[in-house]
Each structure stands twice: as structure tokens, then as C-alpha cells.
Amino acid sequence: MVGKAKNLILLGAPGAGKGTQAKRLAGDFNWVHLSTGDMLRGAIKRGTPLGARAESYVKKGDLVPDDLIIELVGERLQQPDCTEGFLLDGFPRTIHQARKLEELLPGLNIRLDAVIYIRVPDASIVERLSRRFTCSECGQMVTASDDVTVCPKCGGSLVRRPDDEPATISHRLSVYRTNTQPLIDLYAEKGLLFEIDGTGPVETVYKRIISRLDLDSEST
Ligand code: AMP
């Protein structure tokens, strides 16, 4: 049990549900949701210098260089809102990034409370990613099906993230296995890892996280 956990990392393959769970947890517990993927996509959309540097990597499903991402996260963690607690979603993704984070945190007076590893079998990951769309109007994540072809929230049209194209999905999974999977052992050795079964409905997975981290009594 982690007691009053508030500085958390969400670990898991692309499509494991990290972003969905992070949004929900951030909303319920007033923590900041720090998704490096969202930050990079935002920078690319705005055409910032960082976005320009990151664009070709993100498009291909490759990792952007460690120095760039570490700077991005380092700056963000210094913002005052992060003192209320944060959920890192999509960072760290390499052992080097994890080591750099470890060096960074004491200087910011931040302690890492837990790493939530959402585990989903490979077959479900490919299936999930190939059905994952975003609403072009409101940004809602939508799982498309025969019955769901427009955004259930606002009726907007659904677009697929360029890196969720089938050809890029298998590459992203192999990048994940090579670079990110080793972090599971790293955090397990530190006694920080909380493994969660990520199969089943979003609500069920959310309840598993709450109960496993003993967060029931901490909801606002
Ligand atoms: P995500 O939304 O987390 O799946 O991230 C989308 C893409 O952004 C990844 O495929 C990478 O190209 C890039 N990215 C996000 N986070 C990182 C990170 N921590 N290190 C390197 N690249 C990242």
C-alpha cells in the first residue's frame, strides 16, 4: 500500500489504457495529468521548435531523443500545479529517462510514490489500437465499432492518430518491448511497482487501481 500516493507513473504498452485511467484519476484526485505524447502532439500542432524536432519521430512511432523529452518533463514538473500531485503518462519510456527522472526529483523536492503498470495481453493491444479514434471536434477518445462511427459525446467525426495506423502499431509495440518493458523490472526492484490487470471495462480497471493502491479514502 502506498498511503497518500500522489506522484505516480503509469506504465504499460501503447493502448493499455494509461491515458484513459490517468484522465479519470487526475479528475477524481486533483492531480495533474502529464502525458508526454499529448505534450508533443500539442507542440507539433502549434508548430513550436520542439514540435518541429519531434514530429518525424512521433509520426513513425519512434521515440523522440531522450534529451528533448527530459527537458520537456523537467520544465513541466517545476510548474506550481505539480505540487498537488501528478500522473506521468508515457514517461519515462527508457531506462535512461528513468535514471534522469530519479536525478531530477530530489532537487524539486518530489518523491515518487508508485508506478502503476497496466498489463494487457499483446493480442488485445493490437485490437484496441486499431479501433482507437479521437473526436475531431471535442478530442474525446472513442473506441469505434459498427455501432459507434461518430463521437458519442458531440456527434463529431472520428479521426485516427497517424501513429495508430496498423503499419505503425506493430513498430510501436516493438519499440515498447525493447525500450520500455525493462522499466517494469527496474521499478519492481525499487518496490514501487503495482501491477494491474488492464483487461475488461474501463470502470473495472479503474476500480482495480483504486483498490490496489488503497486510494478509496482519498477521493475528493
Ligand atoms: P503516446 O501518446 O504516449 O503513445 O506517445 C506518442 C509518441 O510520442 C510516441 O510514439 C513517441 O514518438 C513520442 N513520445 C511520447 N513520450 C515519449 C517519451 N517519454 N520518450 C520518447 N518519445 C516519446
Total beta-strand segments: 8
Structural class: alpha/beta
Bound molecules: adenosine monophosphate
Distance between the termini: 19 Å
Low-pLDDT runs of 5+ residues are none
Layout: helices, strands, pairs:
Blueprint: E1 7-11, H1 18-29, E2 32-35, H2 36-46, H3 49-60, H4 66-77, E3 86-89, H5 95-107, E4 114-119, H6 122-130, E5 132-135, E6 141-143, E7 158-159, H7 166-180, H8 182-189, E8 193-197, H9 202-212
Parallel strand pairs: 1-3, 1-4, 2-3, 4-8
Antiparallel strand pairs: 5-6, 5-7
Notable traits:
binds adenosine monophosphate; globular; 220 residues
Description:
The longest helix is centred in the last third of the chain and has 15 residues. Helix 2 packs across helix 3 and helix 4 runs parallel beside helix 5. This protein is α/β, with parallel strands linked by helices and 220 residues long. Helices cover 47% and strands 15% of the residues. The chain is globular, with a radius of gyration of 17 Å. A hairpin with a 5-residue loop joins strand 5 and strand 6. The two termini are 19 Å apart. It contains nine helices and eight strands. The model has no long low-confidence stretch (mean pLDDT 92). A five-stranded parallel β-sheet has the order 2-3-1-4-8, sandwiched between helices. The chain has a three-stranded antiparallel β-sheet with strand order 6-5-7. The structure holds adenosine monophosphate. Adenosine monophosphate binds next to helix 2 and helix 3. Adenosine monophosphate (AMP) binds next to helix 2 and helix 3.
